[in-house]
Amino acid sequence: MSNSPSPDGNVTTDQHPQPSTLAQTGARSLGLPWWAFGLANVAVIFTLSVLSWWLLVDPRWSLLNVYPQPYSAVLFWSIIAFAWAALTFEWVGPASLPQPWRGLTAILLTLSLGIAITVLLAQGVGAVDPSFASSRPDGLGYVTGQIFVLFAFFWYVVSALNANHWPWSAKTSQPWTGLGELTLVLVPTAVCYFVLALPGLALWAKPQSALISTPTLIGWFYSVVVAVTVTGVIMENKLFYFIKRPGVVTVAAVVANVALGTVMYFTVLAVAKLLMGSGNVEALGTSTTSYAAELGVCWNFWMFAWANVFGNWPTKYRAGANIFLRSDWRSRSHSGP
């Protein structure tokens, strides 16, 4: 499977159209302008998110008593399960079902995987290595496991969006492409996890051996994840179009995203501190650095929403102009795709 530009400037694959194309088709089928279709989707997502939070998670309302853990761990693992299903395996299986069964199957699949992995780590691995045990104070056992997702999301999204499933895409089809990618990408993910995360979280590690504090690691590496969304989704991978060799594209994407993400970290952290105020920054102390990730989550949501339900508007100009306008708040004043 290979990427190719479509007439409107979007990137398509041999098997699936871009989310921006699907959003435009959905808007036309309902007779809605692009912005109304996007806002309607965001309204539905917001309503379902708030209601599910109140019913299942909120410590004041919910009867489940799952906040902050194991809720956070299940959320993290469900997110990477979604990335595996949607990007690594390209929805092979659920894609053959009509809606709404396709969506309901996807939700059930990702939530089931998220819960299963959380239980396996906390009760199974935690019985062997107490670093992952659910009984650790302040939910640190869950945190030790869930931070793996931070690295997994970066590597699996880079592999799917930037590298176009290389090296498997040229030789195999799904689900074999996904299986090969799932196992191969596990290697750099595990290296990052063992080198950067575990020294600061595992019970058997010496805290002074950590290369970077856990709050700073979360803030910085999530900014790198945001960079992948920028290059792979908003820029539609056009940053690497001039590179012809897929292996070189992969290396270039990793280097470019880490560099861009590092710049974003310092920029977003400065904005987060400004929004929080000096009093809150002082009270939070060294943990303030993790708030680059908090703001990054909001940024990531809107970039994914813009690509998936607003049609990644605009798409009618040349690639450079499209990307610039997507990144410019002034683009909201234009009339349509």
Structure in words:
- The structure is a single chain.
- With 337 residues, the chain is mainly alpha-helical.
- It contains twelve helices and two strands.
- The protein has helices at 19-29, 34-56, 71-88, 101-128, 140-146, 148-162, 176-197, 214-234, 246-276, 278-284, 291-308, 319-326, and strands spanning 4-5, 11-12.
- The protein starts with a strand and ends in an 11-residue tail after the last helix.
Beta strand %:
under 5%
* Average pLDDT, all residues: 87
Number of separate helices: 12
Low-confidence stretches: 1-17, 328-337
Order of helices and strands: EEHHHHHHHHHHHH
Q: Report the structural category.
A: mainly alpha
Order of strands, widest sheet: 1-2
The rounded distance between the terminal residues' Cα atoms is: 28 Å
What is the makeup of the main sheet?
2 strands, antiparallel
Number of strands: 2
Secondary structure: helix percent = 55-70%
Q: What characteristic shape results from the CA principal axes?
A: globular
Please give the radius of gyration in angstroms. Answer: 20 Å
